[in-house]
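Tutorial sheet, problem 5. The two components below are modelled jointly, 577 residues in total.
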Amino acid sequence: MAIDAGSPAIRARQIGVEEGLRVVELFIGPQHPASGHMRLVVYLDGDVVVKVDPDIGWVHRTMEKLAETREYVKTIPIFERMTIIDSCNITLALVQAYEALLGVEPPPRARYLRTILCELNRIASHLYGLGIGGIFLNHSTMYMWAFGDREVFLTLAEMLTGARLTHTYVVPGGVRRDLPQGFTDAFAKAKRYMLRRLKEYDKIFLRNPVVRSRLEGVGVLERAKAKSLGVVGPNLRASGVRYDARMLGYAAYGELEFEPVVGEYGDSLERIWVRLKEIETSLDLIEQALRQLPEGPVMAERYLKMLPPALRKLVESTGRVKLPAAYVNLRPPPGEALSRAEAGRGEIVYYVVSDGTDKPYRVRVVSPSFRNAVLFMVLPVGHRFMDLPAIYASLDYFPPEADR
Amino acid sequence: MSAVGEAERRRAPNPVRAHLEAIAAALSRALKPPMTLMYPDVVEELPEGYRGVIAYRYERCVGCGLCARICPARAIKMYKVPGDKRMRPGYDMTRCIFCGFCVDVCPVNALEHTKIHDKAYYELDSMVLDPVEWAEFSRRLIEEQSARSRSPNLVRAVFDEEVGLRYERLRRS
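Model answer (structure tokens):
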């Protein structure tokens, strides 16, 4: 193709050369370069990345401030929209903080159901990341496959909660629905299907020479550096650090056999490998949880006994929780609570302060993507420009989560 | 069982063999039926308890206003209805996020989820309903729901070990 000497790009380059500049600034985004609106300002010397400036905040929705103006139960759907593809994991820590403030314990069955939905979310979220990663490397098949297989787990979540993505399933005191009939069988089939698919993913993606040449040895994050930067989640574990917030044993994780997936090499290939391996771990965790699922109510007795007898009977017969009128304005005593949980992209931390009114005084959230955003400044430097999408693909960064 | 074996995951695969395996994997999948839902040519049978557009039964309502108080999106507001002593809830479908808190908090089960989530309108205003309109709209919605469940193009998602999800036709045409 003939290059038009008068085109703006060529003119800009000429002006740059005349001015004696070597480094070219390249703006990527902010219109949805991948998983959400964000901008990367890349400084290039020829084809080599000199510096990357992640310009985040394009999807900031003032969630923390909004939460101060809403009653406790109403803040759950707000924070859910931080990572809509991982909504149970994201709200679980918040609800745990509220429960600590209210002094209410979820019944055992509710804790197991929370674990089941969290792991379903984690699988769906990892598949989403994998699909986005595939399209970054121009591997459309991986994109289609991962998004198709994600639908299996979204359908399972829909069976359990009634909604594909915004489940709003975990509420203070328990969960909103009991396990539906046929869920265990449906999951057993989905599990066998997914294990089979993971082998195919291997062939078409992870052991595909084209993909490997893009990922292997690219964006290596050393163990010590990963720790000092405060990276979380699969990106941290791929560098060989055995840290997973699920080891705290919240929900039912303390009662299930669980070993975090830890990588070794810390490059892009390893990060994607850790995610694929975590899908397997999650499938195993759900199976364990379904096998050990205790009998009993799914909502704390404190709220159930506020219901009139007719409604209590309805809850028992349908397995769908009715909320008492007092639930509208929960009033925790003054105090503060800190809660952590492992979301799909890493550890999420909530710090909630209550002043005794029906609205939180302050909700502070530190989200995993926000803690991982620093990697954009560190990893691509010194690499070729086309390694940047490969690195982005392996980080599984989700801008709405970082921006809150 | 594992996606890639521990030891071999870092060993560079034989390029010719790995390429052929990748192509073979794609081809073997191409022979299997896709898991595409042919919307809107088919109607999906949604699971029991699906959280769709909310239907309101005026005659059951006691006008307590809990639904309006718990609504996180402020989609439900209380209205004065001429000739009625109590305030009644109205519904703004443009705001509703289908969380279903109102359905769960309603003490007399006057609110319920329908399995309908795909409605389209020409005007924004026609999506904001006062109590009487909402009750009327709900009646039509429930009729539409039962009409959909009788549709000849009804399909159901079935979990399958081979293809993940299969959309099975419930009626032969």
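Marking note: The longest helix of chain A spans residues 108-136. Full credit if you identified this.
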